[in-house]
Structures are given as structure tokens and as C-alpha cells.
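Here is a typical protein record:
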Amino acid sequence: MELNGLRVSRETQARLQHFAALFQKWAKTINLVAPSTLDDLWHRHIADSSQIFQICPEPIRWADLGSGGGFPGVITAIFLAELQDGWVHLVESNHKKAAFLMTALRETEARGSVHAIRIEDAPAEIGECGAISARALADLDGLIGYAAPWMLGKENCRGFFHKGRDYLREIDEARGRWEFDLVEHKSAVEQESVILEISNLRRLV
């Protein structure tokens, strides 16, 4: 099996397929993603989320903010299972979604844990991380604000944020409050989308 040109092992493929089946089951009663995207689960959500691990395939500690239906946090945790190292801390304050995430991690034997708390409370509970991820959560300025407690003054902590066609405006707005190094990774799934890699974060105001 291949995802975005990445060869996926049989074990990881089985975990992803089990996750997809669980997701479809739970999505009948919980609004995990926009209903209009459910029929395209593999392309719009699983393949899209897998790009995070493809960009950063290191066995490190992640904080995944506003994890919702598990994108990209659970997908990253599934890939880490093959490495038998690294960990994803999924932050989701909605208790129904958090219950789904716990079930998904347990049944796929993925390397992650769920924190059913507000994002603002997560840094104190989780501690230091090497990477922060978030998808469909907030504009870039807001995301950097959430990630700042982990990233400010930490050269080794990077943020990886999915963004759509309006990402250039969001970058300009964020640069009014923050200074940071930026790498734009073009999406292999959505033509006008990117994954923004943020590092060396400094506060301007």
C-alpha cells in the first residue's frame, strides 16, 4: 500500500484500516468531521494527515492540538507504532471525541495518549515536546499562540500546521505578532494546500 508515494507496511496498513472502520462507526453518532467529507475519508483525512509523518518521520514527542477525529494525531501515532518509539499527546476537550480517540489508540495499538483538557492547560500537563501539530483548528496566529508555551525559546521544537488556499494571508497576519522561520511543504493531497513548518519562534508584541 502507498500513501502519497510513501510505502506503508502491512502492519501499518492494517492499523490504518482498523482506524478507518472505527471512525466510520463512531461518526454515525458523533460529529468527528464535516459529514460532506466522510465519503472521501482516505484521501481527505487519512492520506492528508499522513503527510505530517512523511515530513517529520522522527521518533519524537508530539502535542496534537484539537485532535477531534484523530487528524493528524492518531495517524502520526499509528506510524510511530512501527518505529516502536516516539509518542503523540492528543489534546481534545470534547469528552465524546476524547472517548473515540482513546478507543482508536487502544485498538490500533498506536503510540499516543489522550488529554481531555483545554489546550491552554495542556503545556503544564504534557511537558516538553519536539513537535506540535494541528489541523482545521484556528488561523495561523491562533495556532502559534496555542503552541507558544512549547516553542518559545526552544530551537528543537517545531510546529506543523495544515493550511488551505488562504495561507499567505494567515502568514502575513501572524508575522505582525511573531517572528519565526518558515518552510512551506506543498500538499500532495490538496493542490492549493500546504503544511507550514514553523521553528525558532520569537514573540514581537
Observations:
- The beta strands are 2-3, 6-7, 61-65, 87-91, 112-115, 131-134, 158-163, 178-186, 194-203.
- The mean pLDDT is 93.
- The chain has seven helices and nine strands.
